[in-house]
Design goal:
With 302 residues, this protein is of the alpha+beta class. It contains nine helices and 14 strands. The protein has two domains: 181 residues, PUA domain-like; 109 residues, no CATH class. The strands form four sheets. Strands 1, 4, 5, 6, 7, 8, 9 and 10 form an eight-stranded mixed beta sheet that branches. Strands 2-3 form a two-stranded antiparallel sheet. It has a two-stranded antiparallel sheet with strand order 11-12. The relative contact order is 0.10.
Length: 302
């Protein structure tokens, strides 16, 4: 196997380990540090969006920076449209990515969610090169479990590059990007704590939609979400807990009448008529109309 493919598979396996440990939103510092391959340190990102480590002749990753200079976007066919570096189609970075396209080599795509936070997706493939519009078309493949990248399955993936299959897979990544972006922004607004109980372990927190995200009325903006621990997120979605438009937490009446252990007493009943913990910025407080919509449905269950 050639060194290029060995390095790419080592990168995929390392990323799998990091996602298992940290979740799929990874800190930029970790990606800049990278991993060790045959005694050599290999970073996966750099200031430029198209990145080639010294050990390779071709790029290994592409990055969309949060609030960056390039307007990368998902097209109507659900593929990622990735901008060239600069305006010269023959710039070495663009030429390198074009060579990756010709050889059907897999890449990593890092999408900036927030400054210093990136959603890692791999493998991705360049499936189109539009020099007149200075863009590449990028498709996402299946992310295999950790330690399963080998020459055989990468070759198998490359042989199955098909528009229909990859459009579907890339569309699922587009949704995941939106979900992770919503989570990070909501948790940051609430200073990584549950708005009901103040629990501060970020790994135990969710960004709860006030209006469920499967409904057309739902919006994925900070003021339409609440940072909740997993217990209180589940209780909120199950209408055990409600929040009035004035930010007062209510516990369903039949639950208030129950007698059980300390979790029920302190984790649920003790929240009755307490006030929601709110973000510092009033512009990020939960939308009152959305709360009223949700509280009306909660009231019908009591």
């Amino acid at each position: 196997m050639d060194t290029d493919l060995q390095v790419r598979m080592a990168a995929f396996n390392w990323l799998s380990e990091q996602v298992n440990s940290h979740g799929d939103v990874l800190p930029r510092k970790l990606l800049e540090q990278g991993f060790e391959f045959q005694g050599q340190r290999i970073p996966l990102v750099a200031p430029q969006g198209i990145f080639k480590p010294q050990i390779l002749d071709l790029p290994i990753s592409i990055t969309t920076a949060p609030k960056g200079p390039y307007d990368d976007y998902f097209g109507k066919d659900n593929f990622l449209i990735y901008r060239y570096r600069g305006t010269d189609p023959n710039h070495r970075d663009n030429a390198g990515l074009r060579k990756v396209f010709e050889l059907k080599r897999p890449l990593v795509y890092f999408h900036g969610i927030e400054p210093g936070k990136y959603l890692a997706t791999w493998p991705v493939y360049i499936i189109g090169d539009d020099q007149s519009n200075l863009t590449f078309k990028v498709a996402v493949d299946d992310a295999l479990p950790a330690f399963e990248y080998s020459e055989t399955n990468i070759t198998h993936q490359i042989s199955e590059v098909s528009d229909v299959r990859h459009a579907y897979l890339t569309a699922t990544v587009k949704v995941r990007l939106q979900q992770r972006s919503f989570r990070e922004k909501v948790l940051d607004a609430y200073k990584s704590q549950c708005a009901f109980c103040r629990l501060k372990h970020r790994e135990l927190l969710d960004a709860a939609h006030i209006i469920p995200d499967y409904l057309p009325e739902s919006m994925s903006t900070v003021e339409h979400g609440i940072s909740l621990c997993k217990l209180h997120h589940s209780a909120y979605d199950s209408f055990i807990l409600g929040v009035t438009p004035d930010y007062i937490i209510q516990v369903r009446e039949d639950v208030l009448e129950e007698e059980d252990g300390p979790v029920l007493q302190h984790g649920l009943k003790g929240l009755h008529k307490t006030k929601l913990i709110l973000p510092d910025s009033k512009g990020q407080w939960p939308n009152k109309n959305a709360l009223a919509w949700r509280y009306e449905r909660f009231s019908k269950t009591t």
